[in-house]
């Protein structure tokens, strides 16, 4: 495979997944890690990605359309597991994302619930449901359909939620949660503080990767609901940090 072909494939993986790891690329493309690092350096020069420890992340966040087709069966299964955690009359926060969109679909007929979200796609779904709907307003990130920024963060000061469901771009080897932008990190932190119970809901593709901005740690959530199976070493880290894992 020519260097240009290999780099095009890496760029496509970055576009769809949001991040890549050097070792995984070397194995899949059957080249040395040194070759992959040179490829990543070239793609960084072309402003396609940003290098990080052990790999690279997308320069621009993955679009909603790409996210919505990735690991869809896992997202539906995760949503089905989350639905029983919502009770009639609850006030709920739904973080922006395609996994939380599936959760919105799964809970939309629960009686007397109020949902706040910073996701325009979730809002579009719930406006035709019986749920009371509040938008966490702010600047719209058009590529993902989410709202963020100062006004969105400040709006959360006036609310308290019974339960919140959150997503993540990636979770690194230290079990720290990451997102692509600083604005998103601030909003996620503030929303989590306003939830009596908060669940991180992630499929297995999110583990072992690192995006740009740290949000918090798995231990900051009531539980982590996931299709992923942590390694024995990571399970020990999770147990030591009092991380509660719910496998789907």
From TrEMBL:
Q: Which residues form a coiled coil?
A: none
Keywords assigned by UniProt, alphabetized: DNA-binding, Transcription, Transcription regulation
What SUPFAM superfamilies does the record tag this protein with? NagB/RpiA/CoA transferase-like, Winged helix' DNA-binding domain
Under Pfam families, the record lists: DeoRC (PF00455), HTH_DeoR (PF08220)
PROSITE patterns according to UniProt: HTH_DEOR_1, HTH_DEOR_2
All copies of the HTH deoR-type domain together span 3-58
Q: Which InterPro entries does its entry note?
A: Carb_Metab_HTH_regulators (IPR050313), DeoR-like_C (IPR014036), DeoR_HTH (IPR001034), NagB/RpiA_transferase-like (IPR037171), Tscrpt_reg_HTH_DeoR_CS (IPR018356), WH-like_DNA-bd_sf (IPR036388), WH_DNA-bd_sf (IPR036390)
- Protein name, please? DeoR/GlpR transcriptional regulator
